Amino acid sequence: MDLCNINNFNLIIAEKSKAAKKIADALSDKPILCKKYGISYWVIFYKGTHYVVAPAAGHLFGLEGKDGFPVFDAEWKPLWDIDKTAYYTKKYYNLLSLLSKRAKSFINACDYDVEGSVIGYLIIKFLGDVKRAKRIKFSALTKSDIINAFNNISNLDYNMISAGIARHKIDWIWGINISRALMIALHSITKKRVILSAGRVQSPTLVQVVNSEVQRNLHIPLPKFGITITVKFGDLTFNISLDKQFDKLDDAKKFLNNIIGKRVKIVERKTDFKIIERPSPFNLTDLQVEAGKLFGISPYNVEKIAEELYLDGLISYPRTNSQRIPKTVNIFEIVQNLERTQYRKLIGLVKEMTGNKFIVRQGQKDDPAHPAIHPTGQLNTKLVGNRFKLYDLIVRRFLASISKDAKVSIVTYQIKGIRTDVSFSLSFNKIVERNWLDLYPYHYIKEDKVIDLKVGEEGIVTSGRARIVLNKSDARFTRVSLLKWMESSGLGTEATRGRIIELLIKRKYVKLNGRYLVPTELGFYVADILNKFFPVIVDVKLTADMENRLEMIKLGKVSEEEVVKYNIERLNQFIKEYEKNKENVGIWLGKALGFLRYNKCKYCNFESYKDDLCVYHYTAKRKLLDSLNVWKERTGYAEDKILKKLYSSKITGIYIKDVIKDFMSNDESHAKPI
């Protein structure tokens, strides 16, 4: 009997080929390997019934609408038919189409998340029969997890399916219409056709990067004055920065004159103990942030590598928002398995410090679909490079979360001046119980040599200085910090944020300067257009509200149709504004892409706004004039000294420096600034 051509079997649809093989191996000791169209699939006999386990390749269907603008109606079509880059999916489509005709029932075994629910559902809907379909849910591709999932098979998860389909429709409606609006406006003015894109999540993210860059470039540091003193107690000398600042240099100097040479006294000594709590296990965003900070891996690549580790059965499902591991996860079994790997010594430390009682430090965030990311205990000795770094990080974080908190002793001396108005403290840290710190070396705690001073002991302020303190602008966004901003603003999901950031780079709206994201001229113009003409699109609160509405579909509180209809109504508001501003949008884009001539700013390529300056440099000029007065009042410095200090400062914005440089080179202008 040729089992590769049997009929009336149960068709199990996995999201990827690796997952399909894991499922087949878990349910049968001798799965039969078959091939069709160059794709492997497996026939198994499980609990008296034949099953066929076959893979998809992620999404096999995508949305396509008609030409024109606006467009609200779209239908699902095979992805290979509407996207040339996805032509490789045709062989998976053909295989599942063939198998579906011979199947008696269908099981969606794709990843248990919104996307996995949609992937399996659409395949069954268009190639099979959803009336004969079931769903299985697992969080790790281990034998025990897969068997447990089959023992708890359920109906299709229609709320998750509806939420996923609504997200696809909404993102498609916004993305296609905004992008076409921009391209139509450009073509109407320049007759040029250029691929431009914008979207529901992409647009506010771009605007945030651009707004942040503008603020940095317009930053003028304003001075305050801190106090640093040198104090001697016998043979011991301490350099201390006082927790005190002055607006004016003269006031700082007066304070120093009153305390230098004066005696101080130790009035209190106390020892406190601080618990340094062990971390909770990773969710995807935490993992992306930590791996980006430690190893410089982009959030998108962290997600890709984590998915590979999951498909290899090494970790649990990574696209989770949870920082919690429920009791249903057998932690003791995972620890036992890890003890047979290169982590044997670390397991010994965990057992020693916990007495074999493993209690997870549960985080605040939870995800009903999946637990926090954790190792399964299986090992692949071939892990190298970033794959090993990420796996090792996940293992160590998991072990730290089930270990014990660390403890630090803090010895603090309170010191006050004798007949002077000065008080400060000296603190010395010492780790007295390392515990989880020995498992997770990426968390550093500074230790000091504890100095033994006595209450009542006197010292003297031998010297001091007033140091200038300049307020800094916010740092440029990195991939990691932008990801954190997106999460805190409720934009996107843990599974989409990294991809959105890479899309901004791909569209040349932002570029990488080292590890920092810097908007391009095109990015500036597109953000300016969106800000000026279509504020509804870039309103973070409105976009976050949309994410909330999608979440409500998952909870069964609103319908897919209601949320899509609401978005079409919002989109119609955008279209009304667009029609009023279409010509201006086209002109702005034409200038940004170099198709139209315009008067440029004397300092940059942006269009002149006033006095031969773009709006950014004009703003810089006004800000500099105002800030010079503040500097003069606080420091008493001459104007040329202030300008030199500002120009030489690394934290002065580039637009400000452009204006300063021009002024400093114009000898005849010194009588009147700029």
Describe this structure in words.
By secondary structure, the protein is an alpha+beta fold. It is about 45% helix and about 20% strand. The chain has 22 helices and 16 strands. Strands 2-3-4-1-7-8 form a six-stranded mixed sheet, sandwiched between helices. A hairpin with a 2-residue loop joins strand 2 (about 30-35) and strand 3. The longest helix is centred in the N-terminal third of the chain and has 33 residues, at about 160-190.
Question: What is shown here, in short?
Answer:
With 674 residues, the protein is an alpha+beta fold.
Major sheet: arrangement of strands: 2-3-4-1-7-8
Category from helices, strands and their pairing: alpha+beta
Give helix % range.
40-55%
Based on Cα principal axes, name the global outline.
flat
- Total of helices: 22
Q: What's the overall average pLDDT, rounded?
A: 93
The biggest beta sheet is recorded as: 6 strands, mixed
- Overall number of strands: 16
- Amount of beta strand: 15-25%
Radius of gyration: 31 Å
Distance between the terminal alpha carbons, to the nearest Å?
91 Å
| Uncertain residue ranges | 667-674
